[in-house]
Amino acid sequence: MQLTNFFKLFFLALLWGSSFLFVKVAVAEIPPFTTVTAVVGIATLVLYSILRRQGGRLPKFGPIWTRFAVAGMLHNALPFALLVFGEQHVDSALAAVLNGTSPLYAILLAHFLTKDDRLTPGKSLGLLVGFGGLLFFVMPSLQAGVHASLWGLIAVGAAAASYGIAIVYTRTYLHDLPPLVAPTAQMGMATLYALPLALLIDKPFGMALPSVNAIGAVLALALFGTALSYIVYYRLIKQLSASQVSMVTYLVPIVGLVLGVVILDEQLTWNAYVGCVLILAGVMLVNGFIKLPNQLSRPSDEVFQT
């Protein structure tokens, strides 16, 4: 993995991790499905404008649009709806742990469904180390006791699975398209999914006019947390495997930690330091910066054969 791609992975984590702050500001005044409809709708218009300005076009309607529809469902509409429901019934610390299982789904699916992204002992160890770091991050909240319902656990776990499946799907079927085409079409399909939910559930027409802060948060989410982040994401899946890209999930808590220290003047505890070290080590193992001995680093099926 080239160093530039490693920094792109961190940049993507920064975009997605900082989005939680904007979401908190936006949904305080704007209902959740209305927020996501506005965000993906604005992102679609921005991406399409850039695409046309560069002389590009979206493909004609055909089989490729089925792939865009699947990507928009797996990566946007379905997990968002599941998280909106699930996090009403599951504490945030437990939700973070469950969300951290998405790389597991991505790495296992990539092993069985792709030819160039095999499961190795190094990847397995990196996945476990990174997940251990995530557990250290949320340890104080877990020790204080958590609240969860069965359906809440199922919903958040299914959202994590959806994210993991989406990474493998886009890496397999949408990585070779011209720049901006896939993210623009995916956001367009996500808008079509989100709009009916906003109209039926939120009924936004009767809501009060949001404040400048809420509108600014929506614009920040649309421009940076969605449009720019998916440009970076699709560039990464052209150059990295699905398992490598999936490890961005573990970097997002580090972004949240740094923002908490810088913006909210929060104090770091020992578990945060340990969590950071383990997460970074896990990401480096999966992405090949830390290598195991040659025999151990071979794909697992080859190791078992020998």
Detailed description of the structure:
This protein has 306 residues and is mostly helical. 77% of the residues lie in helices and 0% in strands. The chain has helices spanning 3-27, 32-53, 63-86, 92-99, 102-113, 121-137, 139-143, 150-173, 181-202, 212-239, 242-246, 248-264, 270-286, 294-297, 300-305.
Please give the radius of gyration in angstroms.
Answer: 19 Å
Give the rounded overall mean pLDDT.
84
Q: Which term fits the overall shape? A: globular
What's the story with the biggest beta sheet? none
What is the number of helices?
15
> Could you tell me the strand content as a percent range?
under 5%
User: Could you spell the SSE succession in H and E letters?
Assistant: HHHHHHHHHHHHHHH
Helix content: over 70%
Number of domains: 1
Number of separate strands: 0
Structural class: mainly alpha
Distance between the termini: 27 Å
Low-confidence stretches: 302-306
Topology:
Elements: H1 3-27, H2 32-53, H3 63-86, H4 92-99, H5 102-113, H6 121-137, H7 139-143, H8 150-173, H9 181-202, H10 212-239, H11 242-246, H12 248-264, H13 270-286, H14 294-297, H15 300-305
In short:
This protein is mainly α. The chain has helices spanning 3-27, 32-53, 63-86, 92-99, 102-113, 121-137, 139-143, 150-173, 181-202, 212-239, 242-246, 248-264, 270-286, 294-297, 300-305.
